[in-house]
Amino acid sequence: MELYKHQNIKIYNSLTGEKDNFKPINEGYIGMYVCGPTVYSNVHLGNVRTFMSFDVIFRYLKHLGFKVRYVRNITDAGHLENDADVGEDKITKKARLEEIEPMEVVQRYTVDFHNILNTFNFLPPSIEPTATGHIIEQIELIKTIIDNGFAYEVNGSVYFDVHKYDETNNYGVLSKRKLEDLIHNTRALDGQSDKKNPQDFALWKKAEPTHIMRWPSPWSDGFPGWHLECTAMSTKYLGDQFDIHGGGMDLKFPHHECEIAQNQAALGKSPVNYWMHANMLELNGQRMSKSTGNTVNPDELLSGNNKFFSKAYTPSVIRFFVAQSSYRSILDLTDDGLLASEKGYNRLMDGVNQLDHLKASKTSTLDIATWKQKCYDAMNDDFNTPIVIANLFEAVKYINQIKEGSATLNATDLEYLKTTIHAFVYDILGLKNDKTEAGAGTDKLSGAVQLLIKLRQEARVNKDFALSDQIRDELAEAGIQLKDGKDGTTFTTN
Ligand code: AMP
Ligand code: ZN
């Protein structure tokens, strides 16, 4: 169903600094690229937050009936430790420290990344290309940029000529920086670099003799610059221009600024219509970052085995916590915050679990159509998940009112309520109904007992009273009492 035809989506676009009306290049189709992880260590929860925000966006766009091609890359080559284009590549460094092949590093942390995302119920992207699988495309792109006069070769390395580019283009269009200010603020590296200007960035680096990850090119045996892979892979799979490009806020400059420059220099086009940046996750008030050690790994949070939190939290509680703030706000991960989210999540799921027990009436006293549109309006407003959750809590209130008899819904409205709640809770927010540890156990028990109640009922219909009594008695022995009433059989535990 093409629900999108009835929804007006607005997206906060970092390029314009405003919430823009969203109009895809090709009606009904969306091309979306999100910068993936550099696979040299375990992902931390900050990384997970950014990818989760885009997972929810992907889920919503798919829910609306768009055909979304979502490309999220794996950075497995050429990411230097230092933006000044000197130093060792992060993957090579890890390989040296652990005395393994760089590709073993890449494999280990790619597998870890996928395991973590599965745990958190992510949808896989449509394409997950790797930088090392696209070296030829990157070399071709460099050749074009050189031919167009925006890059130069020195001693086997190729650099993007930012000053030349800025004469006819605007380097800083995304990050709202001015080249003059950048020049003013950059420390010169006293002859350490072959670059004409410190602002220039590497498209290709000649490998030192000890550098393991290397490929032949017209300029040297070497490796591509980090910014280049995303231009090569996004344009290969989504075209010279596409709809949405996302990543964490920290990638806006220089990474995304450089992507725009490379695209303009090679193809003469601004590649992306809507640039989206997710804000940072903090841990107890400080930016979560691998380099400062202020991080918590998903495994540590899920197992409770860490020094920051009082207990373990389930993947859905963490997903709920993330969805309770806008992707554009800084989010501080704290024990109090997670405890509050756990309560909220349980309250929501208690409501969801009641849905199947609600009975339809002849008339409706609640305006479900308006409520439903409010859920869509929240997502249409730059994917405002906290407002969606507020609306879901409004629905929990309705559910309780219907249960108590102070409100009614006719059969159509009740069905609307159920399908809308299911769509937003499961399909769009990507939550699972696993509640807390204790709650999950209770749910499983309840499912098993319900099955036995059903089998006992069938035995009675077949006049197999020996079996029906056996089920009742053995359950009683296990501490579960069945009670037959006019609305069916219920159970209690002792
Ligand atoms: P990296 O592997 O460092 O390239 O990061 C992968 C993604 O995680 C990028 O989109 C980063 O912007 C994002 N990221 C890194 N640190 C954080 C953080 N503390 N909060 C949210 N996102 C982050
Ligand atoms: Zn990227």
TrEMBL record:
Its EC number is 6.1.1.16. ATP binds at K290. Binds 1 zinc ion per subunit. Zn(2+) binds at C35, C230, H255, E259. It catalyses: tRNA(Cys) + L-cysteine + ATP = L-cysteinyl-tRNA(Cys) + AMP + diphosphate. Signal peptide: none annotated. Residues 374-440 form the Cysteinyl-tRNA synthetase class Ia DALR domain. It is found in: Cytoplasm. Gene3D superfamilies: Cysteine-tRNA ligase, C-terminal anti-codon recognition domain, HUPs. NCBIfam families: cysS. SMART domains: DALR_2. InterPro entries: Cys-tRNA-ligase, Cys-tRNA-synt_Ia_DALR, Cys-tRNA/MSH_ligase, CysS_C, Rossmann-like_a/b/a_fold, tRNA-synt_1_cat_dom, tRNAsynth_Ia_anticodon-bd. GO terms for molecular function: cysteine-tRNA ligase activity. It comes from Olleya sediminilitoris. This is Cysteine--tRNA ligase. It comes from the Bacteria. Monomer. A motif ('KMSKS' region) lies at residues 287-291. A motif ('HIGH' region) lies at residues 37-47. Belongs to the class-I aminoacyl-tRNA synthetase family. Its cofactor is Zn(2+). Keywords: Aminoacyl-tRNA synthetase, ATP-binding, Cytoplasm, Ligase, Metal-binding, Nucleotide-binding, Protein biosynthesis, Zinc. SUPFAM superfamilies: Anticodon-binding domain of a subclass of class I aminoacyl-tRNA synthetases (SSF47323), Nucleotidylyl transferase (SSF52374).
